[in-house]
Phosphoribosylformylglycinamidine synthase subunit PurQ (Microbacterium yannicii), 235 residues
Amino acid sequence: MTARIGVITFPGSLDDRDAQRAIEIAGGEPVALWHGSHDLDGVDGLVLPGGFSYGDYLRAGAIAALAPIMSEVKDAAAQGMPVLGICNGFQMLVEAHLLPGGLIRNAHQQFIRRDQRLRVENNDTAWTSDLISGQEIVIPLKNADGGYIASEDELDRLEGEGLVVFRYVGVNPNGSLRDIAGITNERGNVVGLMPHPEHAVEPGFGPDTAVAMRSGVDGLSFFTSAIAAVVGAAA
């Protein structure tokens, strides 16, 4: 079978086409979905892309979390469908309470963009099975509201239950508590992170210069992992 992965476009989405291309390169079939719809079109997985949905009014991702299609996203996530929130999509997931914690303005109060080193802390999710625990990867990062926060008790729970999926290495670019760059839910099907794996799926279009030191395809494993999870579940 060919895994059909939906990418939801919200007003202000910037990286939806990039996510669709990443899915296609990984061997899946990208399916364009619209925020105002209640139809997931029979997809096998979902990506909530980066951007500035609804202009980031109120809080980043807060209005998008109430979009009509999010009712279906919540139901699909509860049934175990792989769901990935990238940057603004991660903000949507926490605002929709599909992931715990919150995301606030970067500690230095400035928009940041850089090729960011990450350490894989948990490769036992629908989106990280093709990665190796402890592996370091380089993924582009671009955000203004990327500081991950949660209560000390919640942070201890995330750490204790292995729900931290990615951690910043070398530099903490936005003041995220405990250097957290991405987390998962208990079931491992919903993952959110601030860096952009869809921008590192083919040589020449990701961090592949001598300065960045990597091949530019570290993000591809996110999408091949999800496709493998879908195909494996259907077998």
About this structure: The longest helix spans residues 220-234. The CA atoms of residues 53 and 64 lie 6 Å apart.
